[in-house]
């Protein structure tokens, strides 16, 4: 068993074990991938203030997000195709998150269905939906989430139109994977992954196939997906989805102060500053650059969380110190899942928790809820002197 001390260790194992098309699906962005790269590299520009001679006993990372108590302010983000990274991947990730005491968010585009995850876990989880045109499907999807005792609805608002991801197109990404000479050759080098996949019946999009009208197989799914996203999405439509759910709502995909203000006006429980991991509008600013202006504008009205770019506990600390009440990790837990299954997700959470706890202590803080900008050294022009006309 290799010694795992950082998320990068899990990523190296993940790359060896998982087929190229699914590795590339996780480890890529849209167009030139500028935003994908800067989501992580911009964290490096922020420095931490070391403090000494402060009592570091009785530290805690316990927190509250949207009124619920968790072991640390980190949630597992909704990631499509998680069940292709490891057999029954969503179930494994949900179980690891529940055991650790953090939220798991199931994607609409998951391989395991809402019912699958609910049957194999004993803790409520969050459920993510896209803004789709089909009201009947959306109502039934939301009812299924309600029946599964999901504790929050995460509405993704930055995917009316899908950004182009070159690697996915070139790899012919699909679930299950299309059998081509190149994909077969690659999968023949991933025998443990293949044996695990042969042992599960869950290889399709479990929330859609058999549930969306006319979608009975992967072929009909492609046609449905091409027409499903609501290009006419507006704030009235988002409000309607909130009303359909009637419970706690989190809006994911806010990257502009004006949009944050409109989201706060809806009365949602939280917003997530996110650019979809750099997979939508390439050339947009990183999430961490946009966090402070959004917190300053609406942080007294709605919880502000951050997603995109987090690869360590220090990244989590920096986001919290800049005002986020919670964070989401996507790729970091996927690396663990692909590398070691459920144990790998647990290891990813352990690594991030340890880095958060120790870094917090070395910054002179004992309680994660006391983190603020006083522990940071932020470049004067970090948010930039951009001009919007």
Task: Outline the structure in words.
With 389 residues, the protein is α/β, with parallel strands linked by helices. The protein has one domain (7-377): Aldolase class I (TIM Barrel, Alpha-Beta Barrel). The protein has 17 helices and 12 strands. It has helices at residues 7-17, 20-26, 34-41, 82-85, 89-100, 114-120, 135-147, 166-171, 181-187, 191-198, 218-228, 235-245, 257-265, 287-298, 313-321, 331-340, 342-362, and strands at 47-48, 63-65, 68-70, 74-76, 105-106, 126-130, 152-156, 249-254, 270-273, 303-306, 326-329, 376-377. An 8-stranded parallel sheet has the order 4-11-10-9-8-7-6-5. The mean pLDDT is 94.
Show the helix and strand layout.
Layout: H1 7-17, H2 20-26, H3 34-41, E1 47-48, E2 63-65, E3 68-70, E4 74-76, H4 82-85, H5 89-100, E5 105-106, H6 114-120, E6 126-130, H7 135-147, E7 152-156, H8 166-171, H9 181-187, H10 191-198, H11 218-228, H12 235-245, E8 249-254, H13 257-265, E9 270-273, H14 287-298, E10 303-306, H15 313-321, E11 326-329, H16 331-340, H17 342-362, E12 376-377
Parallel strand pairs: 4-11, 5-6, 6-7, 7-8, 8-9, 9-10, 10-11
Antiparallel strand pairs: 1-12, 2-3
Helix pairs in contact: 1-16, 5-17, 13-14, 15-17, 16-17
